[in-house]
Amino acid sequence: LYEVAEFAATRFEEHLSGNMGETATDYLRSRGVSDELVGKYRIGYAAPGWSSLVDEMKMAGYNLRAAEMLGLVRRADAGHYYDLLRNRLVFPISDVRGRVIAFAGRALGDDEPKYLNSPESEIFTKGDVWYGLDVARESIRRRDRVIIVEGYTDVLACADEAWPEVVAAMGTAVTPNQARILSRYTQTAYAAFDADDAGANAALRSFRSFAGSGVDLRVIRFDEGMDPADLLSEEDGPARFEVAIRDAVGFFDFAWERAKKTYDLRSSRGKARAVADMAPVIAAEEDPVARGDHIRKLSDELRVSEEAVRTGLRRALRAVRSTGGARDVAPGTEDAVEPEGIEGSDDAGSAQYKAERQVITMMLRHPEYLRRGREWLVAEDFRTELYGALAGEILSSEEEDPHRLAGNLISGGDERKKSELARLMMEEGTPDNDDRVFEDCAALLKRRAVEIKLEELQRRISDMQERGETIPVDVWREQSSLLGKLKGSGEIWRSNRGQRE
Fold it and tell me: 466-485 burial, b if ≥16 CB within 10 A, otherwise e?
């Protein structure tokens, strides 16, 4: 396969430099592609005939079955082979060692499709390759950054204008493995995708792949309808491109700016939709401190509590998974919006998470707390998706022996629940017989449940007031009731009686 790919690449180069390649050469010059770049990226031309490459390969004694696997030729029903790439500009795709492994052929006339790309083969997997990395890797190392574009001509346009540290994905969203490959050369990446919805969506999918790679992804913004090649073809394009790189923003800021332009943040529905758009971005952020900063920013700008933002994020992530978005949002990412592992934080979300964890642990270790939990709490008091699911099973079970209950849950749960239950049961240093600890944690859960209901009701009232609507009496009564519950929630229970004071 490597030998056939190299032979074909060489023949395409020869065709471009010969008389038959004049049209392709004129096209490249019209796009400002220098002869130096043509040679560096080994750009070629596929002749218009139906068997030009087939005949050359036969004469050289190469295996046409291998050429078929590379997407260069196809076998007709009659048994003979014919060229697939005809009258096309050809971009050889190489691995990082410079070995040709695939091809992309761009139509020069009205032929469809515009691009014909090699299928995956034993030597080519789209998600493991960057176009141009073999040429750009030393520049990436030297400049300690990489510019990621969408198309082959975008690569050439950037490289021709003093940005050789440029690569392109293979016509799909960036994969985690592609991100890991780039992390060998730099920790800074700039996404220079087209200024349209497709480009923005490609940037979003790419961010999820970069999140765990150690590479910081920033976004270069262009005017609507522009791509790097278009911009750089203009007289002042290079200067504007340099400014765009300098003004590149972090991915969270890019996504948040887009959400603010898309939705009416004066309405509750607009706020909810904006939060839903941001959910995959925040869930993909692995740094808990950065994640907390993002949630606080949304809270401040939307003028809602951080817990309300967290609730919206969890709901959005569950919705994405339930509608088939599991490839983009992995199971368990709901908990990514909880500030896990931030010890000693007074953040409301962190306190909620710790209280839920403590209550479940104590219910599974002591029959008295299992009884009180069933008397005082409901599953809806648990805001974390994992602990909410566990609480629902614990509170609805009729098993009175907590250890037997824990065993049943571990044997019957999914892997995520099994792992968390085993960790809770084996963890040392967690109180399992302290009445005040259990009461304080349970009271916090009930109080936060009331606070969230109150916040949602107050947002509803504010929206109605903004629209000039009359607030119904039952709404005011509900608000008064919730305020009363909140006011008296500091001392909800006393353990010696096991009931409310």
Answer: eeeeeeeeeeeebbeebeeb
Distances (CA, A) of 290 to 7, 53, 461: 50, 54, 32
Look at residue 314 in the predicted model and tell me its pLDDT. Answer: 82
**CA separation (Å) from 76 to 72, 73, 81, 118, 241?**
13, 10, 6, 18, 47
pLDDT at 453: 81
pLDDT at 186: 95
pLDDT tens-digit map of 323-340: 444 444 443 444 444 433
Give the residue among 184, 185, 254 at the shortest CA–CA distance from 220.
Answer: 254
Instruction: Count how many residues are written for the chain.
Output: 501
Token pair, residue 438, equals: 């259990």
Cα–Cα distance for residue pair 117/92, rounded to 1 Å? 10
HEC profile for 378-421?
A: CHHHCCCHHHHHHHHHHHHCCCCCHHHHHHHHHHHCCHHHHHHH
The pLDDT assigned to 428 comes to 57
Helix (H) / strand (E) element for 80: namely none
Residue 442 three-state SS: helix
The count of other CB atoms within 10 Å of the CB of residue 61 is 6
Judge whether 136 and 164 are in contact, CB under 8 Å. yes
Position 452 scores a pLDDT of 80
- pTM equals 0.64
Cβ atoms 102, 82 nearer than 8 A: no
What are the DSSP calls for 255-315, one per residue? HHHHHHHHS-TTSHHHHHHHHHHHHHHHHH---HHHHHHHHHHHHHHHTS-HHHHHHHHHH
**Nearest by Cα to 422 from 432, 407, 434:** 407
Name residue 493's beta-bridge partners: 500
* Residues with pLDDT less than 70, the chain: 171-172, 195-199, 319-350, 413-414, 426-433, 487-501
Residue-level pLDDT at 435: 83
CB atoms within 10 A of CB 161: 18
CA distance 372 to 359: 10
The whole-number pLDDT of residue 432 equals 60
Cα–Cα nearest to 412, from 429, 393, 398: 393
